């Protein structure tokens, strides 16, 4: 969203989303109009069956006279079948929807999973010579793809610092992924000894406090925690935050800079005290002097992680002389493996890598290049470009120690100079997050908790819906339903009058019989027409409301300030655009139809019963009071349970998205069970409200 606002792309992306939504609306429209045709069949079929039975009976013989016993007993039997026959199409529709959903889930769940055999995880052992061992390894990103990494043979000594370098796309991150077991192993063997920690190239930050991000579910060790803050250069940043390390970080580290996110991600790995730590270019997002501090205090030979096996993917050549081993990748293959001096003297892929690096640096203005850095470049270019193969091995062996010493000294001078220079340049840059500081509260809370509304649904909510579906459409639908019920009542009265003709001989003739049968059939046709009009208007209003409400919601989201996205989890927004929009699309129209139909049907039934049996009228009042009292308890409870269910659904989406985006870190730390448990707890919290809502609904139905 920051990028959209920065480039003023809101209108463009809004239109793209609306175009996709319009395709969904087209499918919704087809479904709604198909429902209109189905509704005509549902409502007209029972009447047509009754008309066919009565018509066949009276037309088959002049002696067959339709009396009350035959007519209303037949109607009673047909009404017994009416409800299941009416529900059958709905059940078939739900069955089809369930089949489609199950098919999608089955396809997803049957996808290839990462094999546990990709990596052999062995216990840590100080006696083992190697913590990481890859033998004849070939790896691909999918089972059906050709291997990207081929013929990998690598042994990393326990407690060593290994750098992985190469051009863009050479396979550096892929090599780390193969160690994590994220790539499909086509051949060979991978052994990792001890626990793992992983720092991805793009920092993964959870929506929780800084402290909890670093702890990552591990017990709090105050002494180690303080050391981690120091070596990862987080102390100054915490002083700028409103509540220190108790400050809540927004989703994906919304209120932090890229460097701060990367350092917190690194601090999580350092605090884990894992035996093997995989670092995928973690210093690229931090300033030069901060990177030097982190390398010296945490990653380097004298850092907090000394004694741990470290794999460092890097583009910074200034760190290479201090590594124990350098792995050079080229087009998915290990082109060279050796120490810094060995690779420099080989004049191979590593020397070519250095030449390309320095040639890119030469494009800078001469005044921007420090003299000491320039001298180091010239020295390295000369050594990397010279043909060492022409020298005698004995001469190279004699000079190796002195050359290595000279190069290390030159690099140390360069690092010191860069550090002092950058410190002066970075002095004014104290605050890295300005907008975010405004939205943080004194307690360090950033994300606003979603709370359920209390009390009745405001009339403005109903007004908004009917305005978007247009009041005229809603009024027309209600009027069509009223006519349907009126014709239904008149058909019942007409049938009653017809049965009374059995006692009047002059009305048992053919002409009178045909007249009665024709009018009764006309009432059925009118019922079919009015119910079709009602469902057509319902479908039209449904489409209008779905289109307009989604458009308005999207328009406001696109124009919300960035502070809104800092304080609102993405799962909450997804919840609004998924489940809530689905309710607007399908559930609310059906509920409106059910309310109007049932209300008018109850009124019509009470009118018929009261007219035909006046003694029943006094009983209606106490029954109405009884049901009114029940609804006073049921409606508020059901409404609040629905609200709680909606509110508890957003954390599920947020946690799921967070878990998927950080799956590599979770897998490396072997904390999958903890995240699965957290997901189950959130689903259970949602199911509590959902289950209670269903139970209360059944209770009301029994009453």
UniProtKB/TrEMBL annotation:
Establish whether keyword Manganese is in the entry: no
Indicate the segments forming the ABC transmembrane type-1 domain, all copies. Answer: 1-97, 476-686
Q: Where in this protein does the record put region Disordered?
A: 382-402
- Superkingdom of this protein's organism: Eukaryota
The ABC transporter domain covers: 132-356
Q: Where located? A: Vacuole membrane
Q: State the InterPro entries in the record.
A: AAA+_ATPase (IPR003593), ABC1_TM_dom (IPR011527), ABC1_TM_sf (IPR036640), ABC_transporter-like_ATP-bd (IPR003439), ABC_transporter-like_CS (IPR017871), ABC_transporter_C-like (IPR050173), P-loop_NTPase (IPR027417)
Q: What start and end residues bound the annotated signal peptide?
A: none
Molecular functions per Gene Ontology: ABC-type transporter activity; ATP binding; ATP hydrolysis activity
Q: Describe its membrane topology.
A: Multi-pass membrane protein
One GO cellular component assignment for this chain's record is: vacuolar membrane
**Transmembrane ranges?**
32-60, 72-96, 478-497, 517-541, 586-609, 615-635
**According to its UniProt record, what is one Pfam family this protein matches?**
ABC_tran
Give the keywords, sorted: ATP-binding, Membrane, Nucleotide-binding, Repeat, Transmembrane, Transmembrane helix, Transport
Note the PANTHER family from the entry.
Answer: ATP-BINDING CASSETTE SUB-FAMILY C, MULTIDRUG-RESISTANCE LIKE PROTEIN 1, ISOFORM I
Polar residues compositional bias: what residue ranges? 384-399
Name the SMART domains on file. Answer: AAA
Q: What CDD domains does the annotation carry?
A: ABC_6TM_MRP1_2_3_6_D2_like, ABCC_MRP_domain1
The protein in question is named: ABC transmembrane type-1 domain-containing protein
